[in-house]
Amino acid sequence: MKAVTIPKAGKPEVLEIRNYPDPRPRSREVSIKVAAAGVNFADIQARMGLYPDAPGPPLVVGYEVAGEILEVGGIDRTQMQEAESNDTADGKSAAGDVTGKSAARDVSGKTAGSGESAPNDASAKASNRFSPGDRVLALTRFNGYSETVVVPQDQVFPVPDNLSLAEAAAIPVNYLTAWQLTEMGGLKNGDTLLIHNAGGGVGLAALDLARRRGARTIGTASAGKHERLIERGLDIAIDYRTENWVERVLEHTNGKGADLIFDPIGGSNWKKSIRALRPTGRLGMYGVSEVTRSFFPGSLKFLSVLGRMPFYTPVQLMNQNKGVYGVNIGRLWNEKQKVMQWALAILEGAKEGWIRPHVDAVFTFEQAAEAHRYIEERRNFGKVLLTPGKLSDSG
Known about the structure:
Helices cover 31% and strands 21% of the residues. By secondary structure, the chain is an alpha/beta fold. The strands form three sheets. Strands 3, 4, 5, 6, 7, 14 and 15 form a seven-stranded mixed beta sheet that branches. It has a six-stranded parallel beta sheet with strand order 10-9-8-11-12-13, with helices on both faces.
């Protein structure tokens, strides 16, 4: 299989396509033929050598995919067909062997860790809830920029019939991040929510969730995105490039400030966000995109942004009656049950039509550098995807 690879830290042009052995799933894993992979700021930071969670180069990034099941671990295609025939013939369930905890893998399918437990019928049935050909979306924890990816089954979800695979690939990272921000921030009916980078993938997802909860929304974005944001339900749009957005927020809240702010920018923007909060308000931070715009080389980029970040003390927050919290969906791998519950609720919202993933642009693997540059230049409105070839899925 081929995969978009980061051979060394650098500009978008360092991305290259390499060939790897096709990975094979173990028990409680599935392999997925990738139709589309989401592109996120974490991928760009990893390419620049600035993402601490990423393995060293060469590496294949990508936190989310959508596609079709190729193989279920423990049961290959022929065995699956035989099992289905046996089910029909005698009503019994055929199950593959279950070895317990799935091993983490690199892009080639090489085992990075293992753990085994005795198989049992209940776990075997649970581990075989997917079949080859099923349309799914998945959280991948790297390796998403590949033609084929192996994923633990508890990170895989069926795609609702009313979504295309492209739309499905736009859901996992953006909507789970927005969901966690909303849950931790306690957004409720009548609150005023300020969404920074409102035209981005998480911004649009947050707008869907805020509308569902009956919140009033203010969004910062470049002027060219305002009309589309209003069409999607944003109440007030502010051009962060030409307007003093703190003053505008205060104007639109009778001088009080926002109840909740989602900020992926970092640096000095967090200082302004704190000022734009009303007493009892909360600031949800979920990225440091400002680091990619620093002119300093390597790790000095973080140091330059760090110097402009606010410093909060408990006493200061108590005296201001304000709160701050952070969100990194890529650090919740030990909270899989919680993430699974959020994902199922999001997919139910997609079935009902109020979760509306928006795909802005689709690039082929060969155009991966262009895709990264497209996001770095803040040109995207919604999700940017990579696809191994022509994306033909229509529903």
